[in-house]
Amino acid sequence: MWMYYKNSLYIYITDKIVPEVNNIKNTYGFDYTNVNDLKLLVAIIEKKADYIVQSGGTPPSLGSVGDEKLVVADGDLTLGPGSGAGILVVKGNLTLHGNVSYRGVILVIGTGVMTRFGGGNGAITGGTLVAKVVGPDGIYGTADDALGPGPMFDTSGGGNSDYRYCSSAVNDAFSKLILMLSWNQAF
């Protein structure tokens, strides 16, 4: 797990930060070191989301390999035990308990707090980004965003759990976000 700081934005991303952030930017067009790009990414995922969950709620499904889901938590989210696959966006605090496994991309963009207690045998495979873009007022999208202390990532009580960066899992997850940027009829 690495921490990256640029222009008042703190980001945690798993393994190989510089080459992988650049690869994702070049492949998908989003700069994970830019607050506006992160907010745009969240907005795009929200528009295509399979499920939007209110703070404290539980999504009906987090997906599975071959049936990946786009899930957005519009506030805090607590999971565990369980599994999922796809893209998980959390605008508040993400808390994982017990045997939580996930394959894909986890984006904690907002308050920038992710805590994993007692990982058990769970495995997080893909990429995880924790970015604080909410300022001291604690409200996403206001003028003080990206001010104050940086994000927090805590993994207490690991058990046999694992975090693994996997570009294939990241690519599979982002394949749900393929966008048509322009269209031209040619004949």
Number of domain modules:
1
Strand content: 35-45%
Number of strands: 13
Look at the helices and sheets and give the structural class: alpha/beta
State the helix count: 3
Outline type = globular
Radius of gyration: 16 Å
Fraction of residues in helix: 10-25%
Distance from first to last alpha carbon: 50 Å
Biggest sheet architecture: 9 strands, mixed
Q: What do you see in this structure?
A:
- This protein has helices at 17-28, 35-48, 167-174, and strands at 2-6, 9-13, 51-54, 63-64, 67-74, 77-79, 82-90, 93-97, 100-110, 113-117, 123-132, 152-156, 162-165.
- With 187 residues, it is an alpha/beta fold.
- It has one domain.
- A hairpin with a 2-residue loop joins strand 4 (63-64) and strand 5.
- The chain starts with a strand and ends in a 13-residue tail after the last helix.
Concise summary:
This protein is of the alpha/beta class and 187 residues long. The chain has helices spanning 17-28, 35-48, 167-174; strands at 2-6, 9-13, 51-54, 63-64, 67-74, 77-79, 82-90, 93-97, 100-110, 113-117, 123-132, 152-156, 162-165.
